[in-house]
Amino acid sequence: MRNPATLPSPRRRWLIALALTLAVTYAPMPASSQDTVTGAFEGTVTNSDTGEPIAGAAALIINQATGQTYAKTSDARGRFYQGLLPPGVYTIRVAAPGYVTKEVQQRLFIARTGEVVPVPVALDPAPPGATATPTPTGTTPPTPTPAAPALTAEETDIRARVNASDASRGGAFTEEEVSTLPIGGRTVVRSFDELTLLLPGVAPPPHTLGSVAGPGVGAGVGSAGQFSVNGLRSRANNFTVDGSDNNDEDIGVRRQGFVALNSQPIESVKEYQAITALAPAQFGRNIGAQVNAVSKSGGNGTHGTLYGFFNSSQLNARNPFDTAFGNATFALRAGNNQPVLVGDRQELFSGNVINLRPLTVTNQSGGEDSFTFGQAGFAFGGPLEPARGPDRPPRFFYFVSAEGYINNAVREESF
User: Fold this and answer.
1) Which of 190, 153, 132 lies closest to 407 in space, CA to CA?
2) Percentages helix, strand, coil for the chain, rounded to the nearest 5?
3) How far apart, in whole angstroms, are the C-alpha atoms of residue 87 and residue 109?
4) What are the pLDDT digits (tens) for 187-233?
5) DSSP class of residue 2?
6) Which residues fall within 8 angstroms of residue 277, CB to CB, at 6 or more apart?
7) 88-95 β-sheet, strand order
8) What are the backbone dihedrals phi and psi of residue 49, each rounded to the nearest 5 degrees, phi first?
9) How far apart are CA 117 and CA 352, in angstroms?
10) Other residues' Cβ atoms within 10 Å of the Cβ of residue 176
């Protein structure tokens, strides 16, 4: 028979804007500490002929997305350091008197948050009689590169993402992987947390008794949690967004309630990380997975995405457990095969039942359950102010995203 509890109300059916993210960012000043959503570069400037360190070399770190620059100077050992760098592609330009200016490109992944990424730079001595290359400074930064040059094979190789600094285990997904990997196979509403199930040691939570249901991944997550890591309880995970707490204290999933299954749209996530064992010191709270999502932000260019997802029972095969016994009507019998009788009312004095008749039931096995699901949204970002000159990129950026879904479904149960 049809279960009316599974029929969403019209108001819920047309609930729009389940997740709305609005962010205005400002290019921050350099700092020296690390958190769960930033990384760091530690460069070493040396002479390409002798290998000796070069002191006083000027290094300019340029964020290719925003044009933000960080000016550093190498010390007596030829080293420079810059922390609190968000994930992205950076151009590092190093110049020193008597040497040819050199540029290297380095991509900072979320998997390296809190990690100091070494950047060795070997400068070639300038040929005799050549004009020295002007040294970049922090006050008059050069024009940022308008288009990101192609990464080399070594920089894009998967081995460059392997964590070689500590014993933590897990995985990270880049912006391209978050938006292109297939998800939605285990839940009706697509959630970027399903990417965690692609990592070793991660499994859906066990089924719970009864008809408990809630947001997240897997059946019965309203009481069990979102997923289990390394055999731990499903409630042992720690969820963060941009380093901030995003845990539901009751059911072991993201803080979202029973309306929105996503804490934010998938297209608003820049990178996604799940550490399944031995997380670094900047993580904490629980001993299970450390699930961290980094939001997108605006850049020098205005970019937007409009997306949609549609699924219907007309496009899918019938569930083999969905019975198709027809719609026959028959008299209900109970006890020793006795008919069950019903009436309109019973007379007060005589006790006779008015309009006594057998109770009939109709088999509601109609074949495939009706199901229609649509999910759509947009993401949009760019600069809030125009560039103030060729050497002064914008300082303020914006990013906005919204997502909504419509879910019309009925579930057939035989009992």
Assistant:
1) 190
2) 10, 35, 50
3) 5
4) 677 788 889 999 999 988 776 655 554 444 544 444 567 888 998 88
5) B
6) 168, 169, 170, 201, 230
7) 69-73, 58-63, 88-95, 102-108
8) -85, -45
9) 89
10) 9
